Amino acid sequence: MSTNYAIHVEGLVKRFGDVLALSAIDIDVPHGTVLGLLGPNGAGKTTAVRILTTLLEPDAGEARILGMDVVRQPNAVRASIGLAGQYAAVDENLTGRENLRMVGQLTRQPASTARARTDELLERFDLVHAADRPAKTYSGGMRRRLDLAAALIHRPPVLFLDEPTTGLDPKSRSDLWGLIGELVSDGTTLLLTTQYLEEADRLADHIVVIDEGRIIEEGSATDLKERLGRTLVEVKFPTTRRARIAARQLAAIGPTELSDGDTTVGVGVTDSGKALLDVVRLLESVDLAPKSMAVRQPTLDDVFLQLTGRGPSADDEQPEPATRGAA
Ligand SMILES: Nc1ncnc2c1ncn2[C@@H]1O[C@H](COP(=O)(O)OP(=O)(O)OP(=O)(O)O)[C@@H](O)[C@H]1O
Ligand SMILES: [Mg+2]
């Protein structure tokens, strides 16, 4: 039953002219969990989020938030969700405090509630010192925090974050991850889109990988890595000659590749513990002493490369219309 899930999506289709932005995708997000929607530029992530937050109507399929249909019950859906967009939708000329109070009004909070909630969120998102400065003076990280705070004014049980940390430096990104982690531990259901595999790995309980509007893989980060990522035993040799000989021998254990100026042999394995012993025994039997050995666990980047035949795309800074669901 769809109502068992906080977010239920079935056969969702969206076309823009000739572009099939979403091709019949199905997604279910259990209450209180985090779904990471992972995909490169143009995969359809924002389109999915816009449909789920009632900003865009699908061409076919259905989507329900807490059992409510996004097309037929948009107002009820909006009251239950928060959205922080790919590009922070803050009013540049208002101060941080004014921005939050304005969203409080838009979400029909009583003035006293909105004021109290504003103070609480400014505190929690470390914006008290800048609360009475216009938002145009804020750094990128501060804007993202303000945008996220605005999405939380009305305490929505379901939250959508569209690439919440794109364009932030590592410190701001890690701070924001901390804040998002706190929200989730408070029981908020979260759908998060990202191009950062590390972000999905860190925050999501379940990951759906989309590419060109289709789901190409899904599972937990661990599942995906186990199923798709290949563990590499990397053996470094003092000379390329020895490395090449070793590569031929080690091919008996798993697929090999040479790297690092042909001095390092990577052997793809599934059971790294056993494989490591096999590699040592084999090298000993042919009297090829390695300079060093290491086991490299697969990253989500490896998974992505394997799924799409290319790495995750670089950030692009093309502007996109600012969006906020709760307004
Ligand atoms: N309003 C629109 N009009 C025409 N085409 C659109 C529109 N919105 C999205 N598209 C197209 O639909 C596809 C999916 O776009 P979408 O913005 O959902 O991707 P995305 O995964 O969010 O990408 P990014 O990582 O760059 O934000 C793209 O090919 C995009 O060009
Ligand atoms: Mg997008």
Annotation keywords:
binds magnesium ion; 14 strands; 2 domains; Alpha-Beta Plaits; 26% strand; binds adenosine-5'-triphosphate; disordered C terminus; single chain; 11 helices; Rossmann fold; 4-stranded antiparallel beta sheet; 327 residues; alpha/beta; 6-stranded mixed beta sheet
Give an overview of the whole structure.
This protein has a 6-stranded mixed beta sheet with strand order 6-7-8-3-9-10, with helices on both faces. It has a 4-stranded antiparallel beta sheet with strand order 2-1-4-5, covered by helices on one side. It has a 4-stranded antiparallel beta sheet with strand order 12-13-11-14, with helices on one face. The protein has 11 helices and 14 strands. It is an alpha/beta fold and 327 residues long. The two termini are 29 Å apart. The chain has 2 domains: 30-57 and 68-225, 3-Layer(aba) Sandwich (Rossmann fold), CATH 3.40.50; 230-308, Sporulation related repeat (Alpha-Beta Plaits, 2-Layer Sandwich). The structure holds adenosine-5'-triphosphate and magnesium ion (MG). Adenosine-5'-triphosphate is lined by residues 16, 19, 21, 39, 41-47, 86, 195. Magnesium ion is lined by residues 45-46, 86, 162.
List the helices and strands and how they pair.
Elements: E1 5-16, E2 19-30, E3 34-38, H1 45-52, E4 60-65, E5 68-69, H2 74-80, E6 81-84, H3 96-106, H4 111-124, H5 140-152, E7 158-162, H6 170-185, E8 189-194, H7 197-203, E9 206-211, E10 214-219, H8 221-228, E11 231-236, H9 240-250, E12 256-259, E13 264-269, H10 272-285, E14 292-296, H11 300-308
Parallel strand pairs: 3-8, 3-9, 6-7, 7-8
Antiparallel strand pairs: 1-2, 1-4, 4-5, 9-10, 11-13, 11-14, 12-13
The structure holds adenosine-5'-triphosphate and magnesium ion.
